[in-house]
Specification:
Chain B: It is found in: Cytoplasmic vesicle, Clathrin-coated vesicle membrane; Golgi apparatus. Chain B: It comes from Artemisia annua. Chain B: InterPro entries: Adaptor_Complx_Large_Subunit, AP1_complex_gsu, ARM-like, ARM-type_fold, Clathrin/coatomer_adapt-like_N, Clathrin_a/b/g-adaptin_app_Ig, Clathrin_app_Ig-like_sf, GAE_dom. Chain B: This is AP-1 complex subunit gamma. The complex is a heterodimer of chains A (165) and B (876). Chain A has 6 helices and 7 strands. Chain A is α+β, with helices and mostly antiparallel strands. In chain A, helix 3 packs across helix 6 and helix 5 crosses helix 6. Chain B is 59% helix and 8% strand. In chain B, the strands form 2 sheets. Chain B has a 5-stranded antiparallel beta sheet with strand order 1-2-3-6-5, with no helix packed on it. In chain B, helix 16 runs antiparallel to helix 17, helix 26 packs across helix 27 and helix 29 packs antiparallel against helix 30. In chain B, a hairpin with a 2-residue loop joins strand 7 and strand 8. Chain B is of the alpha+beta class and 876 residues long. The radius of gyration of chain B is 41 Å and the shape is elongated. Chains A and B meet through strand 2, helix 1, helix 3, helix 5 and strand 7 of A and helix 2, helix 4, helix 6, helix 8 and helix 10 of B.
């Protein structure tokens, strides 16, 4: 099971926090601080895996990958395959890239609810829903369409937070 | 309504927060926003609820409290529109805890949305339920989710399957409801649905034994076929990653097969072929392919033994180890660690590659590899592996040396084939990484060295060389200084040369140089300097010609600010100066330290005294205290009034600590030296004193003295190579134990001669036995006294197996001749006589003194009597 997905930037600022077991917000930030300390002290040419036993209990592991200024971090237990999780992160990033056409940190900052929705189409309750980024993009596009077309249902001056704003 | 804040768009708020230069500014912006949102909440403002919650989620991510927004989530979820519901559900998943009461209120909305006509809204509800469902919600909503497993749209079926996992984890009783729907989902062609169905199936198998049995019987074959198709399928472009057909599906299939095959030979049989196919056909030049291979290896390792497959699997891991990708090497090492318990032989074959990984540039890989090597070492490969590791120690990173050193030491201690090898390897480690060696490791080395009497000379010479080259390694300096102090005479005289050694010419002054250098080096700490002082004191007696120089060196510490050093310096100075007569006895070689006792104490089964490292400067480190106390005891034993035969070691010690001339030296850290002194004393006594006599001592002491095994083995090992003469050669060391042992050997008869007459004395008398000594002197050698001991039995029973043993201090030499008989008749009806010859090296200065021990059998019961004889006539 995947325990959590975190995106932080190279300054340690959280950009996306998603835990699949409830963690109080203070704990979340402790965890992020710990992870950030570990990650920014890691050398370049080392593996992407870190033991996470101390924060998440026995046999939990953490995989991270850096994309430009961001660390993508997935925390998971022994029932997941580390190498496959690396591929999963690749799928996530590819999907973001397709949805935001050339994703950058700012896209994630300003559209965090969309990023959450994309993530929900890939991982649900700590389990992988979909590994094909084409399928995910399709699902996200359909949701976008819902946002626009059901607009009439909501009051006229509400903002969707989804587009343009 | 506050037009300003409610009017702020989400984007503007994020900009404002990002523009903040300090945390305080950011807090101010957030506070203002939160205030506005609270106001909107209390106004029950519908228009901006959606936007406000989005803002709150952002604020939440930054770590600010947002509990006041929880009800807003519920209101948004209850709203009719998709955008509201989407944000509402997002907020629900991020802001709410499954344990909160509020969550109960959402169940109804969820139920409605699960039945919504809009499948996207159904999707939102499933996603939220799958993330935060509580047990109550799971019970309430399970029927809806179960129904959705058959929904027409595959996207909903996928989500329903994963949502079911949450449900059965929360309420395992519900598992049986899902078994049949899953069985039909497993027949799906849609990759995404199949993937999620397999995950649900795996979790069902974990929570329910019946489900596992069911799937094992009904679905194993089908799943094997799906995997076979996936491996052989030529094309499925949308799921391809790097040219491999749907790797994630293959991984999930391998995982479910692992669960089904584990512990079941039939199911395992079914999957053998396909596993072999995956293992051989999968391309390993991409991460995705390796992920499949990795999963496949894990499955092969977990299912029932299938002969060749395991070898195939471990060979895959072996290939992984030489992969350029760090991640692949890392997982391979992890997996090998698990595999070692399943098929150690197969893993051994990759030893060389694993050893290479110890030298990897990636620290986490090095660490894993080292752990693995540690598991791989056994009696047969310990020598080459240790050599490799030690060679690598020279070039390894500083921060890796600690781990590496600890592992090497542990391997060497655990598996060394002989002492010479052990000492050699440890010296190498000390030279390379002495500063990383834990105290208990070099303490153990010292214990081993004292026990290897034939290697004393070799060891001290090797250490002398080592110190020259590795003077910056504290541990090598300490062990070296200790050994030079103990065995300095062997060093300069090249005694006990081994064939492998190069001759070494060291003068007495050279040896002292080494220690002087060590004590003066500014990086030496208190422990090292104290050890240096002890070594100097010992050398002052071993090298009389250097005595004056040593005294000067010792004197230099007289003004030391460290109390311990100052005190030692002053005391030792006075010993060298004023107590010439006792110095040699005082600085005798350490008695052999009992290995068993040390290792037990190290393992923690004995109370830890001084043996463990303690940086507290008031406590004397192990080696120092022992060297110090043993001579003290010798001294005390012989200069005191005759002690009662039955007095225990503890009493001697009390005397010592009470008011002896050197007692002041023990007063720093009084308890510590006292304890260790007791130990040493008991080490000495352990061969001698029967347990009963130690009644007054502590439990700790009893446990040592009752340890007959260790003392007996010590006797065995020591008595065989010993020369039969009582003359104590320097190489054999000279503890009282050894003197005792000498008594066992048969001795050549000594011609009787007439000398000056001395009155006979009753040397020993107990209720059952009396011993009389008759003395005679050999003409021409006033130092030598011939003693005829005669034993009389005062009881009415016959004593059989009668053995008399005696021990003398260093300045005396003792020959025991065979006794006239080993049976002593009762009622004084005859006696046993035995001749002794004592040579007093300090004739005229000291009188004779002797400890005796008499053992015999009375009605087949072992009896033992002991005593000390100090009433020898003067002038012997």
């Amino acid at each position: 099971m995947i325990r959590g997905v975190i995106i932080i930037n190279d300054q340690g600022k959280p950009r996306l926090i998603k835990f699949y077991d409830y963690q109080p917000i203070e704990k979340q930030h402790d965890i992020i601080r710990n992870i950030y300390t570990v990650l920014c002290n890691r050398a370049e040419n080392v593996s992407n895996f870190v033991q996470a036993d101390s924060t998440f209990g026995p046999d939990t592991r953490l995989v991270y990958k850096t994309f430009a200024t961001l660390y993508f971090i997935v925390i998971f237990d022994e029932s997941e395959n580390e190498l496959a999780i690396l591929d999963l992160m690749q799928v996530f990033v590819e999907t973001l890239d397709k949805c935001f056409s050339n994703v950058c940190e700012l896209d994630i900052v300003f559209n965090f609810s969309k990023v959450h929705t994309i993530l929900n189409e890939i991982i649900l309750g700590g389990q992988v829903v979909e590994m094909s980024s084409a399928e995910v993009v399709k699902a996200v596009d359909e949701i976008s369409w819902q946002e626009k077309n059901k607009f009439s249902h909501s009051s006229s001056n509400a903002t969707s937070g989804w587009q343009r704003r | 309504m506050n037009p300003f804040s409610s009017g702020t768009r989400l984007r503007d708020m994020i900009r404002a927060i990002r523009a903040c230069k300090t945390a305080a500014e950011e807090r101010a912006v957030v506070r203002k926003e939160c205030a506005a949102i609270r106001a909107a909440v209390s106004d029950n403002d519908n228009d901006y609820r959606h936007r406000n919650l989005a803002k709150l989620m952002f604020i939440h991510m930054l770590g600010y409290p947002t509990h006041f927004g929880q009800m807003e989530c519920l209101k948004l979820i209850a709203a009719p529109g998709f955008p509201e519901k989407r944000i509402g559900y997002l907020g629900l998943m991020l802001l709410l805890d499954e344990r909160q009461e509020v969550l109960m209120l959402v169940t109804n909305s969820l139920k409605q949305d699960l039945n919504h006509t809009n499948q996207y809204i159904v999707g939102l509800a499933l996603c939220a339920l799958g993330n935060i469902s509580s047990a109550e919600m799971a019970r309430d909503l399970a029927p809806e989710v179960e129904r959705l497993l058959q929904f027409r749209d595959p996207n909903v079926r996928k989500k329903a399957a994963l949502c079911s996992i949450r449900i059965i984890k929360k309420v395992p009783d519900l598992a049986e409801n899902f078994v049949n729907p899953v069985a039909s989902l497993l027949k799906e062609k849609h990759h995404g649905v199949l993937l999620t169905a397999i995950q649900l199936c795996a979790d069902l198998c974990i929570v329910s034994e019946e489900a596992l049995e069911y799937f094992r019987k009904k679905c194993t074959e089908g799943l094997v076929k799906v995997l076979k198709d996936a491996v052989n399928s030529p094309y499925a472009p949308e799921y391809d990653i790097a040219g491999i057909a749907d790797p994630f599906l293959q991984i999930r299939l391998l995982r479910i097969l692992r669960i089904l095959g584990h512990g079941d030979a039939d199911a395992s049989d079914l999957m053998n072929d396909v596993l072999a196919q995956v293992a051989t056909k999968t391309e390993s030049n991409k991460n995705a392919g390796n992920a499949i291979l990795y999963e496949c290896v894990e499955t092969i390792m977990s299912i029932e033994d299938s002969g060749g497959l395991r070898v195939l699997a471990i060979n895959i891991l072996g290939r992984f180890l030489s992969n350029r990708d760090n991640n692949i090497r890392y997982v391979a090492l992890n997996m090998l660690m698990k595999a070692i318990s399943i098929d150690g032989q197969a893993v051994q074959r990759h030893r060389a590659t694993i050893l290479e990984c110890v030298k990897d540039s990636d620290a986490s890989i090095r660490k894993r590899a080292l752990e693995l090597v540690y598991l791989l070492v056994n009696e047969t490969n310990v020598e080459p592996l240790t050599k490799e590791l030690i060679d690598y120690l020279e070039v390894s990173d500083q921060d890796f040396k600690g781990d590496l050193t600890a592992n090497i030491c542990s391997i060497v201690e655990r598996l060394s084939p002989d002492k010479l090898w052990y000492i050699d390897q440890m010296l190498k480690v000390l030279c390379e990484a002495g500063n990383y060696v834990k105290d208990d490791v070099w303490h153990a080395l010292v214990v081993v060295i004292t026990n290897a009497s034939n290697l004393h000379g070799y060891t001290v010479r090797s250490l002398y060389r080592a110190i020259q080259t590795s003077v910056d390694q504290e541990a090598v300096v300490r062990v070296g200084v200790w050994c030079i102090g103990e065995y300095g005479d062997l060093l300069v005289n090249n005694i006990g040369m081994l064939d492998i050694e190069e001759p070494l010419s060291v003068t007495e002054n050279d040896a002292v140089d080494v220690i002087e250098l060590a004590i003066k080096r500014h990086t030496s700490d208190l422990t090292t300097r104290s050890m240096c002082l002890i070594a100097l004191l010992k050398l002052s007696s071993r090298f009389p010609s250097c005595s004056q120089r040593i005294k000067e060196i010792v004197n230099q510490s007289k003004g030391s600010l460290l109390l311990e050093l100052q005190q030692r310096s002053i005391e030792f100075n006075s010993i060298i100066d004023k107590h010439q007569n006792i110095r040699s006895a005082l600085v005798e070689r350490m008695p052999v330290l009992d290995e068993a006792t040390y290792s037990r104490r190290r393992d923690g089964s004995l109370p830890v005294n001084v043996s463990t490292s303690d940086k507290n400067s008031l406590q004397n480190p192990n080696g120092v205290t022992k060297t110090f106390n043993a001579p003290l005891l010798d001294l005390l034993d012989l200069s005191d009034e005759p002690a009662p035969p039955n007095s225990s070691g503890g009493d001697f010690l009390q005397d010592l600590l009470g008011g002896d001339i050197l007692s002041s030296s023990s007063h720093t850290g009084t308890t510590q030296p006292q304890k260790s002194g007791t130990d040493v004393l008991l080490d000495l006594l352990s061969t001698g004193s029967p347990p009963a006599q130690n009644g007054s001592s502590t439990a700790d002491i009893l446990s040592i003295s009752q340890d007959n095994n260790s003392s007996v083995s010590a006797l065995d090992s020591l008595s065989s190579p010993m020369p039969q003469s009582v003359h104590i050669a320097p190489t054999t060391g000279g503890s009282p134990i050894m003197d005792l042992l000498d008594g066992f050997g048969p001795n050549p008869p000594v011609p009787k001669d007439n000398g000056p007459a001395y009155p006979p004395v009753v040397a020993f008398e107990s209720n059952s036995l009396s011993l009389t000594f008759n003395f005679s002197k050999q003409s021409g050698s006033p130092q030598t006294t011939n003693i005829e001991a005669s034993f009389t039995n005062k009881s009415s029973d016959v004593y059989t197996d009668f053995i008399f043993q005696a021990a003398v201090p260093k300045f005396l030499q003792l020959h025991l001749e065979p006794a006239s008989s080993n049976t002593l008749p009762g009622n004084g009806n005859g006696s046993i006589t035995q001749k002794l010859r004592v040579t007093n090296n300090q004739h005229g200065k000291k009188s004779l003194v002797m400890r005796i021990r008499i053992s015999y059998k009375l009605n087949n019961k072992d009896m033992l009597e002991e005593g000390q004889i100090s009433n020898f006539p003067r002038g012997l």
